[in-house]
Amino acid sequence: MAYAIHATCVTCWACLPECPNDAIHERGGHLVIDPVLCTECTGDHLDPQCASICPVEEAIVDATGTPLNPLGSLTGVPAQVRLAYTAAHESGGWSCLP
Ligand code: SF4
Ligand code: SF4
User: Fold this and answer.
1) How far apart are the C-alpha atoms of 56 and 71, rounded to whole Å?
2) For residues 43 and 55, what is the distance between their CA atoms, to the nearest angstrom?
3) How far apart are the CA of 36 and the centre of ligand 1, in A?
4) Rounded to an integer, what distance in angstroms lies between the CA atom of residue 26 and that of residue 23?
5) Smallest CA separation from ligand 2 atom 3, residue
6) In 3-state terms, what secondary structure has residue 56?
7) 9-52 residue pLDDT tens
8) Against a cut of 0.85, is the pTM above it?
9) How far is the CA of 54 from the centre of ligand 1 (A)?
C-alpha cells in the first residue's frame, strides 16, 4: 500500500526530505509519491512522515482516497464550517474583502 499527494498540495516541499524511502519526487513542478517506494513508513516511523509534516488538510491520501489529515484536523475549523464557507465563497455570496 502507498499514499498519494492530492491536487490540494501547495508544493511547499516540506514533505520531500522527511521520507525515509526517498519516495517523494518532483514531477512537472509538483510533488508526487512513488507507489513502489512508499511503505507508509512501516518499519521506519510510527506515523507517516509526509502527512505528519504536511500543513495542508486533505493533501495526502491513502489508497482509498481518504485524507490522512482530514478537514479540521490541522486548523481546528469544523469541516461543516469550512465546507459552508467554501460553497458561499465560490458562489460569490461571502467575501472577506470590504
Ligand atoms: S508515507 Fe512514509 S514512505 Fe510513504 S511517502 Fe510518506 S514519508 Fe515516504
Ligand atoms: S508537505 Fe503537503 S503541501 Fe507540502 S509539498 Fe508535501 S504534500 Fe504538498
Assistant:
1) 9
2) 24
3) 11
4) 10
5) 9
6) coil
7) 999 999 999 999 999 999 999 999 999 999 999 999 999 999 99
8) yes
9) 11
Q: What is the rounded CA–CA span in Å between residue 5 and residue 96? A: 29
From the candidate CATH numbers 2.40.240.20, 1.10.10.10, 3.30.70.20, 2.40.50.140, the one assigned to the domain spanning 4-70: 3.30.70.20
Nearest to 61 by CA among 71, 27, 45: 71
Q: Would you state the pLDDT for residue 85?
A: 86
Q: Which of 34, 47, 53, 56 to mutate to test the pocket of ligand 2 (most atoms within 8 A of CB)?
A: 56
Best of 9, 25, 40 for a ligand 1 pocket test (most atoms within 8 Å of beta carbon):
40
